[in-house]
Amino acid sequence: MIRFEAAVRQSKTIRVICSEDFPKAKAVSTLGIYSNQGNPAACVRAGGNDYIFPLENGFQIFEFNEFLKSLNLGLKIQFINYKQYAELVAVCNQMIQKRNSGNPVILLR
């Protein structure tokens, strides 16, 4: 079982959740990387909530990698640097948008 933790923002409050409480991959609507008070973080929108994954150290990045892998997008998920990672998350977001729209997702390798 893939395990990860994230904070969920609900009505201006944030709580930490674990992978067992996270909505299924098909509930994910958007992904993005942003600065959370000057610290890198990923935001995942799923089921009407925003889930915040801090990306400040290797373990946190590992956890978000495990989450990205759980989406089964067929991409190689790895962190090289923040610029590359932001681009990877943007590609994942595009694939999720296409998958949610019912359009076929075509991987070019």
List keywords for this structure.
109 residues, 5-stranded antiparallel sheet, 30% helix
SS summary, helix count: 2
Structural class: alpha+beta
Number of strands: 5
Main β-sheet description: 5 strands, antiparallel
Cross-sheet strand order for the largest sheet: 2-1-5-4-3
Give an overview in words:
The chain has helices at residues 58-70, 82-101, and strands spanning 5-10, 13-18, 28-36, 39-46, 49-54. By secondary structure, it is an alpha+beta fold. The termini are far apart. A hairpin with a 2-residue loop joins strand 3 (28-36) and strand 4. Strands 2-1-5-4-3 form a 5-stranded antiparallel β-sheet. The protein contains 2 helices and 5 strands, in the order βββββαα.
What order do the helices and strands come in, and which of them pair?
Layout: E1 5-10, E2 13-18, E3 28-36, E4 39-46, E5 49-54, H1 58-70, H2 82-101
Antiparallel strand pairs: 1-2, 1-5, 3-4, 4-5
In short:
The protein is of the alpha+beta class and 109 residues long. The protein has helices at 58-70, 82-101; strands at 5-10, 13-18, 28-36, 39-46, 49-54. The protein is globular, with a radius of gyration of 13 Å.
